[in-house]
Amino acid sequence: MLLTGRTAVISGAASKRGIGRATAELFAEHGARVAVLDLDAEAAQEAAAALPKVGHGEHIGVRCDVADRASCEAASVATIGAFGAINILINNAGITQPVKTLDITGKDWERIVSVNMTGVLHLSQAFIPNMRDNGGGSIACMSSVSAQRGGGIFGGPHYSAAKAGVLGLAKAMAREFGPVGIRVNSVTPGLIQTDITGDKLTPEMRVDILKGIPLNRLGEARDVANIYLFLASDLSAYVTGAVLDVNGGMLIH
Ligand SMILES: NC(=O)c1ccc[n+]([C@@H]2O[C@H](COP(=O)([O-])OP(=O)(O)OC[C@H]3O[C@@H](n4cnc5c(N)ncnc54)[C@H](O)[C@@H]3O)[C@@H](O)[C@H]2O)c1
């Protein structure tokens, strides 16, 4: 049990096969009280209700659109009202879109960047004051191997740009908030089997991608949840501003 008595907020944690949901389950198994934040209030509440019980109170599900600053502030008020001190924030929510540079519309750019990158800023701004005033905490931010290798897996260039922006933002926050005990790190997964790709990942694409993965399998949501657990727990007490690859060796650098 690595998170006994801790409180954790996880964005994008309602979707059934998603990384956020797997992380919420793993954190609850390790004793954390979890706030599931997601676009749909009912789905978030259902996900929270299905988590393993912990000793220090109920899990909660809260509506939050990370692209909307006011929605993040409202979610933080609700979560802090229920939990008091927040120890862990997982900036996990994200969306993708497989398009090429010349096909990216202004609306596409705005949508992809605002959810994947600006959302990390919004939610961090909403929870950092609470963490700072309660002696610190751990923030983990979702980037992607697409940020490091210039896409080429599934998401378009706007997705790569947004996920690369997350790395810079997380490192800058790590530097700024280290002195008050808040660690900030990022994860860069390769292709993980969730529903984010919808029906756009064809069997042929899958075979092609597998050829480039030394560990010879696609990732599972739990593979990433395990790394979030490491970053959330005291096992990583001296780690901040780091980027952890979870890609089966797809990118070795
Ligand atoms: N699956 C992969 O191969 C892969 C690889 C690298 C990075 N990622 C990243 O991992 C994260 C989780 O993705 P996943 O694969 O579990 O997909 P998923 O679609 O299962 O989960 C994404 C979750 O984010 C939620 N969400 C979407 N927009 C939101 C918003 N504006 N506000 C709040 N919540 C929102 C969705 O409702 C969903 O629950 C994303 O940031 C994604 O970009 C995924």
TrEMBL record:
GO terms for molecular function: oxidoreductase activity, acting on the CH-OH group of donors, NAD or NADP as acceptor. It comes from the Bacteria. Residues 6-190 form the Ketoreductase domain. GO terms for biological process: fatty acid elongation. InterPro entries: KR_dom (IPR057326), NAD(P)-bd_dom_sf (IPR036291), Sc_DH/Rdtase_CS (IPR020904), SDR_fam (IPR002347). Belongs to the short-chain dehydrogenases/reductases (SDR) family. This is SDR family oxidoreductase.
